[in-house]
Design a protein that fits this description.
The chain is mainly α and 198 residues long. It has 2 domains: 101 residues, RNA polymerase sigma factor, region 2, helix turn helix motif (Rna Polymerase Sigma Factor, Chain: A, Orthogonal Bundle), CATH 1.10.1740.10; 85 residues, Up-down Bundle (Butyryl-CoA Dehydrogenase, subunit A, domain 3), CATH 1.20.140. It has 9 helices and 2 strands; from the N terminus they run βααααβααααα. The chain has a two-stranded parallel ribbon with strand order 1-2. The longest helix is centred in the C-terminal third of the chain and has 21 residues.
């Protein structure tokens, strides 16, 4: 897996008012494909950033984003509102496209994040830690992440590196909010065990 440090830059949540107007557009787009255009324009950049954090090149990212919106348009009649923003459904399709790419290409996965994400994962703030100690701890976390399954990494990435609520993590990963919480807790515990062994 390729681990790449990145700067946080994203917004994931929409207001109830936006959700309502979005639902109207979605219902229109189910019968009139042209009504999908405002949704595409609204979320293209979000989906692009989401995919770019998971792949190595901009060209590959553009291809996967195109596939994501094509599949979304084709599956729009299957979409049902489940209490999370529509974009979460798009993220789920995008993540499936990324996973499909890695399964078929057998290339190393890319994971982009900021070092503060690693600290937040354990809920610790070490203001008094010397830079050398901090770097060593970060390296140990990175080594532990390398030993996780791709699905485990996806849970960690969504929850800690992208700061998503558990409900949205569950929606994107195709599980319940409670199951997402349990999975993330277990993954963090696994990371801690791996770090103790090294």
């Amino acid at each position: 897996m390729n681990l790449v440090l990145d700067q946080r830059s994203s917004t994931y949540h929409v207001s109830e008012e936006e959700q309502y107007s979005e639902q109207v557009l979605i219902e229109q787009a189910k019968t009139d494909r042209a009504a999908f255009r405002p949704i595409y324009e609204k979320y293209y950049e979000d989906i692009f950033r989401f995919v770019l954090k998971r792949v190595s090149t901009t060209d590959l990212c553009q291809d996967l984003v195109s596939q994501t919106f094509l599949k979304a348009l084709n599956k729009l009649n299957d979409y049902q509102f489940k209490g999370v923003p529509f974009v979460s459904w798009l993220y789920r399709i995008a993540l499936n496209e990324v996973n499909l790419h890695y399964r078929s290409s057998h290339t190393k996965r890319t994971l982009r994040f900021d070092t503060s994400d690693l600290v937040r994962m354990f809920g610790e703030q070490h203001e008094d830690v010397v830079d050398d100690e901090k770097q060593e701890r970060i390296q140990r976390i990175l080594n532990a992440l390398q030993k996780l399954k791709p699905e485990d990494i996806q849970f960690i990435q969504l929850r800690f590196f992208e700061d998503r609520p558990y409900k949205e993590v569950g929606e994107i990963m195709g599980t319940t909010e409670n199951n997402a919480k349990v999975k993330v807790f277990r993954i963090v515990e696994r990371i801690k065990k791996i770090m103790k062994l090294n």
